Each structure stands twice: as structure tokens, then as C-alpha cells.
Amino acid sequence: MDLASTTLASTTAIFAHAPIDWVIIIAFLIILVIDSLRSDTARAATLAVTLPLTVFSAGLLAHASFLGPLLDKITSPYVQSAVFALLFGVLFVLVYRIMYALGGSGSTPTVSIVAGLSATIITLVMWIQVPALQSVWHFGPVIETVFGAAYAFWWLIAGYLLMAFVRS
Fold first, then answer.
1. Residue 33: pLDDT band by 50, 70, 90 thresholds?
2. Backbone angles phi, psi at 66, to 5 degrees
3. pTM: predicted TM-score of the whole model, two decimal places
4. pLDDT band per the 50, 70, 90 thresholds, residue 1
5. Are 32 and 118 in contact (CB under 8 A)?
6. Phi (first) and psi of residue 147, to 5 degrees
7. How far is residue 141's CA from residue 128's CA, in Å, rounded to a whole number?
8. pLDDT tens across 16-25, in order?
9. Cα gap 33→16, rounded to integer Å
């Protein structure tokens, strides 16, 4: 067996036995880092601000006149996830316009990594807190313990401190 096939086999074995949660998280982080390198940290910052705002707004949406009674009739978790995604999309566009207007000056690899890490942390914390999103993808017990309710406050503070450092 030559070196190339041995290396390929061992690399494949590593990824074949990796927990899918960590693969998803790392892929999400890489996408955010590449996006931050390509353009700026504005989209990562927008994601970090929009997710908690969406969770808050979704809670208010249930009590809104006209929409509240309509949304009370929805019992499917997938439809609830779609409503959350629609609200997230609208708020993302609005917040991005604000973030982009505040400006940015490009991004270095270090800044992009920190911005991607910050947005990933905040996304994980918020994903675990929203039952509608849990129906789309339910993270394993390790991720839920690390980013769950007991430590959510501290993770959010750390994520926002990192984002404040990046955006300053």
C-alpha cells in the first residue's frame, strides 16, 4: 500500500467516525470565516445580532393582534420553523443594511476567524434555545450541555465580546 492511499484511508476514517454535530459546526464556522475573508465581518455580525432579535420577536409575534391567533393554530414544528426562518430572513436584511452602513475595512484572517467563531457560538446558543429549530436539527447531548441553558448567558457574552473586538 502506498503512502497516498494510506493517508486517504486514515483521513476518511477520521471523518467517518466524527460526530455529525461537530462536522456541521466546523463546516458552518468555515463558511463564516470564508465569507468574512471574502467580503467583511458585516454578515457574521448581522447573524450574531439577528438570531437573538428573531427569538425575541418570535415570542412577541405569538401575541401580536391578527397574527397571534393565526399562529396559535399552527402545531407543526416544521411550519413553526418556516415562520421563524421567514422572520429571521426579514430581520437579517434589515439589520444587514444597518451593519453594512456602519462600515468595515476589510478583514484579515485572524479577524475573520474570530468573527466566524463568534457568530458560530451565538448561533449554537440560540439554536438550542428555540424549540422550532430543535425540530429541524437536534444537537447531541454534548453540544446541548456545553451550549445549553446553564452556560448560555456566558457563551452569549463571550460571543458578543469577540464580535465587539472584531468590529472595533
1. very high
2. 75, -55
3. 0.79
4. low
5. no
6. -105, 10
7. 11
8. 666 888 989 9
9. 24
* Tens-digit pLDDT profile for residues 146-157: 999 999 999 999
| Cα four-point dihedral sign 115, 116, 121, 127 | positive
Query: Residue 4: pLDDT band by 50, 70, 90 thresholds?
Result: low
Of the candidates 90, 93, 117, 101, the one whose C-alpha atom is nearest the C-alpha of residue 30 is 117
Which 8-state DSSP code applies to residue 63? T
Rounded distance between C-alpha atoms, residue 154 and residue 166, angstroms? 18
Cβ-based neighbours of 58, under 8 Å, separated by 6 or more:
83, 84, 87, 130, 132
CA distance 65 to 165: 40
| Residue that has been written with the C-alpha cell 444587514 in this structure | 96
Q: Over the Cα atoms of the chain, what is R_g?
A: 19
